[in-house]
Specification:
The complex is a heterodimer. Chain A is an all-alpha fold. Helices cover about 75% and strands about 0% of the residues of chain A. Chain B is about 80% helix and about 0% strand. The longest helix of chain B is centred in the C-terminal third of the chain and has 44 residues. The N and C termini of chain B lie far apart (about 75 Å). The chains are: A mainly alpha, B mainly alpha. At the A-B interface, helix 1, helix 2, helix 3, helix 13 and helix 14 of A face helix 1, helix 2, helix 3 and helix 14 of B.
């Protein structure tokens, strides 16, 4: 009986009321927020307990959380400070490069190439070069970084970068000046080019024919309309060339980014949630 | 035997079940954030309560307030999600109804009005809520307002005995709107007439002038037996200006009606 009384007295002391805001409980809650994809709140919770735990997992998850919410500036900063002694260090470096690529900080990327990079890091850097530079790297060195299975596709990107097949707005305008519609055909807009050719031809003929038959009012009418469509055709051809160039640039960037996404930026995914 | 029972009880209670006072104080803590309009922190603390409340005593209230807080931040998808969670956990018809009304209001705000109307009709069909019909007609009216159906909104407000002001207001708005079909038909018959109907006098007169000019030149070409000229002027100039005139008539009416309805919504919001 005395023993039971002793336990009843001691028990509340040895088991004080659980504090929901204790560091251990905050960590549990932060893990839950992270796994339910409430990354911003998870970051706040982790940051409030980071000094209680000497835990590189928390630091890594904070960085990953910032990346998930597309705050690449903060993500880059947090990945950069993951210590070399951490198991996440290698992956953190790759995520750091990924953040710089997303931010298009190509100058910062080029400064990182100190000859001590891992193969995955080198691959990422070279893909980033494709997005930015004029491919200063020699073809064999560039391709050699990638595995045999990757080289075929990378070769296409590299050739595309070397010779992007831009169309010149000046040439497009000049062609349309000589032959209306030919500038649009040059930029690949076949039906629009043919329409411009036929319309300008028709108006020119009608103007000439009316003047020849002394119908001066209609002659000037068709001449005015013809001039309007003729100058429009020249301007439209130059614009068409610019549009073409922007389109192929965007397609190229999109394909490289999709390629990097498919490779998950050569990072390893850790399963933090069950 | 009794000793064993007591010791077993103590051991079982050492499993992490938070005392009622902790959860209650966490609830108060979260509610203080909500009342103080610190909605981000309110959501965090209610989610914390949800996470640690293993016995789900505060599940309904937490989900309800999380949804209310998301609504203040305009995160409508999350609002609907958490109110739906609260609906499942509702233990009384009043709690169920409150959540449903909030979901309806959110659907109206984010302009998924078809969904709002469907939910309202479901509640109207449920005899438990027979004493809430006026409120449901009210929100049905608002759903129609946000769908730009002012006449239907007026019809709903008319069903509410003490809310004839809104019924009259929405009917007046409906009466003041321009008819797009009428504008297009007028411009079809007389180029420019549709624009003049919607108050765009200069555009209407200009449209009339251009159509008159190209029409004259086309007919003149045919009269002078310049048939091909007539077809070219008629097709490339006259027809383009004619169809442009009809298109403009419709466009101006749409713009005018947009201004009227925006002013009406501003008035309803701020008055």
């Amino acid at each position: 009986m005395k023993r039971i009384l002793f336990i009843l007295i001691i028990f509340p002391v040895s088991h004080p009321a659980q504090n929901l805001h204790s560091p251990e409980n905050k960590k549990l809650f932060a893990d839950h927020l992270f796994c339910t994809k409430d990354y911003l709140r998870a970051i706040f919770e982790y940051q409030s307990i980071i000094y209680e735990f000497a835990d590189d997992t928390i630091e890594y998850k904070i960085a990953l959380g910032f990346e998930k919410i597309n705050n690449f500036d903060a993500a880059a900063e947090k990945f950069r400070i993951i210590p070399a002694s951490s198991v996440f260090f290698t992956n953190a470096k790759l995520h750091y490069l990924k953040s710089l690529i997303q931010l298009e900080k190509f100058n910062d990327l080029s400064e990182l190439n100190d000859g001590k990079l891992s193969l995955s890091e080198l691959k990422l850097l070279n893909l980033a070069y494709l997005l930015n530079s004029k491919a200063a790297i020699h073809n064999e060195e560039f391709l050699f970084t990638f595995d045999q299975s990757e080289r075929e596709e990378i070769q296409i990107f590299y050739e595309w970068k070397k010779d992007p097949s831009y169309k010149s707005p000046f040439i497009a305008g000049l062609l349309s000046t000589i032959i209306p519609g030919s500038g649009k055909i040059y930029t690949g807009e076949l039906s629009e080019g043919l329409t411009a050719f036929m319309l300008n031809g028709l108006l020119g003929f009608l103007s000439y024919n009316n003047f020849k038959n002394d119908h001066n009012l209609r002659g000037w009418l068709f001449a005015g309309a013809g001039l309007f469509f003729y100058t429009g055709n020249i301007y439209g051809s130059a614009i068409s060339a610019n549009r073409y160039n922007i389109r192929i640039e965007n397609e190229y960037s999109e394909r490289i980014k999709n390629y990097m996404e498919s490779k998950k930026y050569y990072t390893e995914e850790y399963e933090f949630c069950d | 035997m009794i000793k064993l029972l007591i010791i077993t009880t103590l051991l079982i209670s050492s499993i992490k079940v938070f005392p009622q006072e902790d959860l209650e104080s966490q609830f108060d803590h979260a509610l203080n954030y909500y009342v103080g309009e610190k909605y981000f922190h309110a959501i965090t603390e209610f989610k914390r309560l949800l996470f640690f409340d293993t016995q789900r005593r505060y599940a309904f209230t937490s989900n309800f307030y999380i949804a209310k807080s998301y609504k203040k931040g305009g995160k409508f998808s999350d609002v609907v999600r958490y109110f739906n969670e609260a609906v499942i956990l509702a233990s009384t018809s009043s709690e169920f109804y409150d959540c449903k009304i909030e979901i309806i209001k959110t659907n109206i705000l984010r302009r998924t009005t078809e969904r709002a109307l469907k939910l309202i009709d479901e509640l109207l069909a449920d005899s438990i809520y027979f004493n809430r019909t006026n409120e449901l007609y009210y929100w049905k009216g608002w759903a129609y307002i946000f769908s730009d159906k002012w006449l239907e909104a007026s019809n709903e407000f008319e069903k509410i005995p003490d809310n004839q002001e809104l019924a009259l207001f929405t009917r007046n708005i409906d009466d003041s709107l321009y008819n797009e079909t009428l504008a297009k038909v007028l411009s079809y018959i007389i180029p420019g007439a549709g624009q003049i109907y919607s108050g765009q006098y200069s555009s209407g007169l200009l449209s009339f002038g251009w159509n008159l000019l190209w029409g004259y030149l086309t007919i003149n070409s045919f009269v002078e037996e310049r048939i091909f000229d007539g077809f070219v002027i008629g097709n490339f100039l006259w027809l383009r200006f004619y169809y442009g005139n009809i298109h403009n008539a419709g466009k101006f009416v749409t713009e005018k009606n947009q201004k009227i309805t925006n002013r009406a919504l501003d008035y309803l919001q701020f008055e």
